[in-house]
Amino acid sequence: MFRRARSRRYFHPGAERARMAQARLRVDIPDGPWVGDVSREFPDARFQVLTATPEDGAGFALVRVTADDTAPILDAIDDHETITHSSVMAEDDGMVTVQVEALVPLLQTVARRAGVPIEMPVEIRDGVARVDVTGDHERVAKFGDALRDVGAEFEVEYVQQRVNPGGSLTERQREVLFEAVDRGYYDVPRECTLTEVAEHVGIAKSTCSEVLQRVERTIVREFVDDLPRRPIDFESPEDDGIERIQ
Q1: Which residue, 28, 114, 207, 209, could crosslink 142 as a Cys pair with Cβ 3.0–4.6 Å?
Q2: What gap in Å lies between CA 19 and CA 143, rounded to an integer?
Q3: How far are the Cα atoms of 155, 175, 183, 198 from residue 205, in angstroms, in the given order?
Q4: 225 three-state secondary structure
């Protein structure tokens, strides 16, 4: 008889597998949003958006600024026409954390339009933001379209697949697999024999072998199926294949 499954490790056998892509973009922020304007005014400073929450017509963000002299940068932030409120939350030598409320929250608006989350922190230097987004292929591509719509140029640093192999395994297959992994069956060198795995699970050795073979075949096939056979299309119809989008 099979032992009860470890609840923290199990998923419903019929659950849909996640098929997601993760992309890193370097976005040239256009004129207008405060973080683009101020970071270009102080090109040696480092801006990190730690948290951000979009609202209708505005956005709230917690931003860390690192520079030799942060005082003029704080003044520039406070004086920018899109800033409706700013307050210093923490300050140290060469580093300050400021909470801002701003109109035209460009990246937040684009992310909402595309339906993908932006992973924090977002780092901005000299008007260029390093942005990581994760979602299904269509939404990640839509994020690029939304950037193009607001006039933001960007380069794609990389696109990588984020897969959940094994999403279609049965509960029984999962239990045998986890037992084998936990006991070192897949270690090099092996710490546990197939016979020992079968005994711990409570099934015959031949059955255990068949289950693990099916598991291995399923996981490998799912992994290969999820590998991108062609890149996400961030490019406009007029583009000639260069990753910089205008």
Answers
A1: 114
A2: 17
A3: 53, 15, 15, 5
A4: helix
